[in-house]
Amino acid sequence: FRPQDPCFTCCPSLQQAGARCRPTDPVLNHFVKFLRALASDKFDSGSSFEGSEAMSQLSPYARKIFDALMAEKANMKCIDCSSKLSVDWASVNLGVFFCIDCSGKHRGLGVHLSFVRSITMDKWDERQLAFMQAGGNKACKAFLKEQDCFDLPLAQRW
Fold it and tell me: What is the residue-level pLDDT of the chain in tens, covering all 158 positions?
């Protein structure tokens, strides 16, 4: 990922202006940096990925990755409301899965905080897939609980 990609970093100009900054922003930034490092390790370790173009929503490679990720118990439930229905949405930069209702709430936060994609309808490129592999609901939930912010309202948590 490139530093200028809005889906992988919080907007520095907003932070400098003090806009939309919340007490949890440093915590979120720390988690995003943690996921970046994990995803970067996948690329540096020589993992091979099929093709360099964006994956189609049904590419066998992307489907295999999502099948494995969605087989994990924590990823079968929405990170925000714990619903087990329609958990086929994800935040690429946060590396978490959620339901369709919470996907709308994440879209409302803006792409600089949560870059929302459908795991069935959208195209996924190699880096986005690596980001999801590095994250997951279990890791994110543990991190947020460690920082005492998992139980905060959605807008304050993210």
Answer: 334 434 334 444 434 444 443 445 666 666 777 666 666 655 554 444 333 344 445 588 889 999 999 999 999 999 999 999 889 999 999 999 999 999 999 999 998 889 999 998 898 988 999 999 999 999 999 999 999 998 998 888 88
Residue partners of 157: CB distance under 8 A and separation at least 6: 24, 144, 149, 150
- Match 């994956």 to its residue by tokens: 55
> Amino acid identity of 145?
K
Print the SS3 string covering the chain.
CCCCCCCCCCCHHHHHHCCCCCCCHHHHHHHHHHHHHHHHHHHHCCCCCCCCCCECCCCHHHHHHHHHHHCCHHHHCCCCCCCCCCCCEEECCCCEEECHHHHHHHHHHCCCCCCEEECCCCCECHHHHHHHHHCCHHHHHHHHHHCCCCCCCHHHHC
